[in-house]
Amino acid sequence: MSSHSGAVCLDEARRVAIFGGTHGNEMSGVTLVNLWTKNGAEIQRKRVESKPFITNPKAVEKCTRYVDTDLNRAFTAENLSATGGDDLPYEVQRAQEINRIFGPKGSPEAYDVIFDLHNTTSNMGCTLILESSKDHFNLQMMNYIKKAITPASCLVLLNEHPLLKYSTSRSVAKHPIGLEVGPQPQGVLRSNIFEAMRVILKLALDFIELFNEGMEFPPCTVEVFRVSERVDYPRDANGNIIAMVHPNLQDCDWEPLNPGDPMFQTFDGKTIHYQGSGTVYPTFINEAAYYEKQQAFVTTRRETLVASAIRKA
Amino acid sequence: MEADKVMCLPKLSRVAVCGGTHGNEMSGIYLVKELLKAKAKGVEEEEEETVPALLVLSNPRAMQQCRRYIDTDLNRCFTHAALTGPMLDPELYELVRSRELNATLGPKGSPEAVDLICDLHNTTANMGLCLISHSDCDWICLHIFRYLQRQMSDVPIRYIHLDVSNKEAYSLDSVGKHGFAMEIGPQPHGVVRSNVYAVMKAGVQHMLDWVTSFNSGRAFESGFVDVFTMVKCIDYPRDSKTHNITATIHPELQDRDFCLLCPEDPLFQTFSGETLSYKGTEPLYPFFINECAYYEKGIALCLARQRRLRIPAIRVQTEQEQQANKQRSASEEEE
């Protein structure tokens, strides 16, 4: 598959989807997809078919994260092959429909790229979410975006953790990319967050256009934050939360958390310290939707990945 | 002029602190739960220090689902008409619940109503701590406001006056003889931020301290306070067919609650980048800028006038004054 110059040759990325409303109350993606469905000029690129798509219309209509079950956890092999039609939870039915249109997941017919647009209440800024450290196309795209957006920052979160990774809507595509921008409350549309997401997507589509036109991207390194561990809130014997994210940790996504640093604060003001063995980089700190998933934040470790040179086959 | 005439007001014997009126406004929910836990543990040594408060979780079903409401907004169900007329729809959970709360904390407008309700709320808007009341002459509420400002001088604390009669007032706090909502932001719904929780906890504690102090006979001097009286609300520009919004709060207005908005100042930014400016003729103070729950109510922001009010000196009625007052109202009723 390598050319004489050492570049990995990959298929043209012709079919691109942009998902909004995978969580119905994450408003940047919902708004952008609705906008582009009405007028797609902004997302048009030479040699690219870009399809904007609302993945969870019922949740969007109710301005809620999901109706029956989290769509962004629903794309398991079991769900995708489940029988039961209308008796299945709404989001499982949607997952099967999305898999029909944009997949099937894992097959040659699947879409080349899917961007899945999300917001978070955490202070994560612009984050690109990568599902595989070996996806050189995605790594090169992320490198391109990071360089183009300088001095503004766009960090890369890698979730390849065997236990903590999950079956996302975007995972139907050959190259899945999550776009997570925060902080923004659920149900709210903030203009700065909206514009930031728009800019990232524009750069991503520029990259695809350049790639499809035959540009070769030389080898590069990409700094990523690899998901390490999920940390729950301290709870009592009945499962009730007994402490909040400590004021020193609140809003400090991507900053080092060292052993002994304040981590939680009980309701009567006592500090609970981080007891890990080394420095970690927490993110998704105090995300509203994760209270029910038993997650106050996730820890990550910094890593540098090497991306091979790539060009169109 | 009797500038320093002291107003004597009845003792505040029964005080209620309510959380979870909206089931996803987490500071109040966690605070009331903690206060309930402390009460259950029997914090005997503090009994004489602060007035015991009735602790209420107003909308338990919405709390369970971490939603603002199940069927309809509970905090709009407390008008006199809604509470006393024929039950509009017994299928609506909040209509049933509002009557239960009115029975426990009210009945609104009757002598049996609790003396003071403090209803805890959070907002996604950058409003700091606001006391929201339908009255601009409830001296109890206004003195509490001034007291909080003095005790918590590092927190922006404001008083918002919604200009409606007590009968027309629709919020839970209007059920008490005195009442206000304590609204703190910014905090996303479904999240508790430790800094916001800390401010709410301190606010409630100071309020209870003030009530204890008032009840013990201390006089509070007259003075002046600045309040914000609501004038109007502005909706987002919307698509005439789909009714979807077509613009967001302008980045220069976002988070600038209580910063004066002048004619021609930026108000909205359309999705194509155009600035829409404020077309009013009077400079006004915006608040509830980009509150999540107000999208469905057709409100992008509210606007208020700032007014300086004079508050009289007050103290609690003595036993004799209270007796005399009761006899007077009894004979008035007979007439």
Tell me the total number of β-strands of chain A.
14
Strand content of chain B: 15-25%
What's the CATH H-level homologous superfamily of the largest domain in chain B? Zn peptidases
Which stretches of chain B are poorly predicted, pLDDT < 50 over at least 5 residues? none
Q: Which assembly state applies to the chains in this document?
A: heterodimer
Characterization of this structure:
The complex is a heterodimer of chains A (313) and B (335). In chain A, 23% of the residues lie in helices and 26% in strands. By secondary structure, chain A is of the alpha/beta class. Chain A has 2 domains: 224 residues, Aminopeptidase (3-Layer(aba) Sandwich), CATH 3.40.630.10; 60 residues, Single Sheet (N-terminal domain of TfIIb), CATH 2.20.25.160. In chain A, helix 5 links the parallel strand 5 and strand 6. Chain A is globular, with a radius of gyration of 20 Å. In chain B, 27% of the residues lie in helices and 24% in strands. Chain B contains 7 helices and 14 strands. In chain B, strands 3-2-4-7-5-6-8-13-12 form a 9-stranded mixed β-sheet. The two termini of chain B are 32 Å apart. Chains A and B meet through helix 1 and helix 6 of A and helix 1 and helix 6 of B.
Précis, in short:
The complex is a heterodimer of chains A (313) and B (335). Chain A has 313 residues and is an alpha/beta fold.
Distinctive features:
heterodimer, A: 313 residues, alpha/beta, N-terminal domain of TfIIb, globular, B: N-terminal domain of TfIIb, 2 domains, nine-stranded mixed beta sheet, hydrolase activity, acting on ester bonds (chain B)
